Amino acid sequence: MKIKPVFAGIAVLGALLLVLSLTTIAKVFAANPRDLLAGVKTQPQAVQLLPKRSPLFVSFLANPEKLGLFTQLAAKPSDRGDVRHELANLKQQLQQNWLLDYERDIQPWLDQEITLAVTDVDLDHQSANGLQIGYLLALKAKDVDLAKTTIDAFWQELAVNGSDLGFEQYQGVSILNTSFAENRPAIAGTILDKFVLFANDVRVLRQAIDDLKDPSLALPSLEHYRDRLAQINKGKIAVAYANLGELGEDLPQASLLMSLGLDKAGIRAKTLWHEERSPQSVADVTEPNASAPSSLSKPATKPSSKSSTNIATALPSGNAVIIGKNLGETLKGFQTSLPPEWLKVITKAIAPIPLNQDAVAWAQDDFAITLFPQRNAQPTITPDWLLVAKVNDAKASATAIASLDDLARKQLTVGEITLKNQPVTVWTKLSASLNTSSGSPNNADVSGQVVAVHAQTSNYIYLSNSLPSLELALTLKNNQAIASSQNFKTITAKLPRDYKAYGYLAQKVNLDWLETISSDIKIQEISSKISHSPLASIFKHIEMVGFASNSIPNNIENSELFVNLN
User: Fold this and answer.
1) What ranges do the domains of the chain cover?
2) If both were cysteines, with which of 75, 443, 489, 506 could 79 make a disulfide (CB 3.0 to 4.6 Å apart)?
């Protein structure tokens, strides 16, 4: 499993939901609109106008008028006012950003595709003068002549209202443009083939014309894009693409293609992640003295390549869960996918357990990791976590985790206690303070902080940073397991059955604790930006998220996400 594509998929999905307006779409699902639920088989055509290095695009393949009309019919009478308000907000955003009146300028001729793209993060590729991002809005016309008449009237109105219009011919194509003061957007536009195009810079439209005339310059000429596109040929209403290598130097040289479909209970997404993989040294991402020796014993087992959610019966309910196969291979995936600053955060969060394969040699079969809700009194403390790993060979597993104890002894005190008649190994960080109240300088108080605990039963090995969490797992009753949770059942029922890894994320997961262990990731800054952005209104409608991840040939990671809406 690779966490990077999953998180990237969720991020792009958030952007998609923002454009669609989740509040509006959510009201459609309950009415079971078969045409929308079935999706379309058509692929985005405006991609032929985008350069190969385009960092991002989102294509919607359903007519917004049809969607809006059905939304009005599907909504409860008491909710229709809210629906109309959300639709009005979307149209207002279109007018603010592109000066386009939807009913007047677009609706009469619009077909089944709207594509919004970032064509370049810096149009002149000169960092000294700042980033000049290129944006393209492509609207497919079902009646090109009507579109031309309508858009000509749009430009004429701008001219009548005092805008200075510019005109140029580029390779036989007419381009109009106008610019305003700093607080108004610059706009350039043309009609190319069956698409009405608007951009924030004439250079974007010139590039689109070049791409159409020479397909080798366009995004569809990339083989890995075409291969993945063929795998999302049905059941969708939107397609999104992100080229992370173009979005930032610190991001992996990878790209994500995703389809978005509708379900009666929420939103379904399929992601296909392609990465040019290169080996990465573990030493670059672990803390000093945190690497485990290569001599750690490994159970001699050869588990199957697919994981099973059956291990959830041994897992207490938490608000974030990952289920997978072979934790060592999962960690290897981390080290080739996640940026170094995120690897450092993970290393600090699980310290002193090293972030490498040898340290988890006892978790080569099914495993599950859960995060528990944080204590309200100390929301910035690292949350309690629990790792459960299936035992196939009891002796080999015991030997492997004993080697991990040997490694811990270099930094901590390792001892054993009995908990509910179960032997438990405890890693403790001892500290001492002088006690002068007795009048004797030789008296000292010794206290210990539990760093990690683990226990082994006939079926599982449990490892946690919390003794209460371990006790909860050891005394778990069937109805207390996350497998018995209706939310977990609902989300996993929407996911494939034969994938390598699964995940579950509840609505409210506090990440403030990341700020306390990281100076590289500005969690509070990011959180503040999100909370004050339109994304905040989306997140409040998300009840839970589930994902399944799987590897397929040609360095492609295949994942499916399901977002359940409240």
Assistant:
1) 3-275, 307-565
2) 75
Token pair, residue 485, equals 């949770």
172: left (phi over 0), alpha (psi -120 to 50) or beta: left
Q: For 392-542, where are the alpha helices, taking DSSP H only?
A: 394-408, 467-474, 486-493, 513-516, 523-531, 535-539
Structure tokens at 360: 């988890």
* 8 Å CB contact between 471 and 420: yes
Q: What is the pLDDT of residues 7-39, one digit of tens each?
A: 444 444 444 444 444 334 444 443 444 566 778
Residue 466 tokens read as 């919390």
- Please tell me the least confidently modeled range out of 166-170, 201-205, 308-312: 308-312
Q: How many CB atoms lie within 10 A of CB 5?
A: 27
pLDDT digits (tens, 9 = 90+) for 175-210: 999 875 555 668 999 999 999 999 999 999 999 999
The residues, ordered by sequence, that sit 6+ positions from 176 with a Cβ below 8 Å of its Cβ are: 155, 165, 166, 167, 188, 189, 190
**Interior/surface letters 408-433, b for 16+ CB within 10 angstroms, e for the rest:** beeebebeeeeeeeeebbbbbeeeee
pTM given for the model = 0.74
In this prediction, residue 206 carries a pLDDT of 96
Q: Are 362 and 389 in contact (CB under 8 A)?
A: yes
* Rounded Cα–Cα distance for residues 480 and 478 (Å): 5
501-506 vs 320-325, strand pairing mode = antiparallel
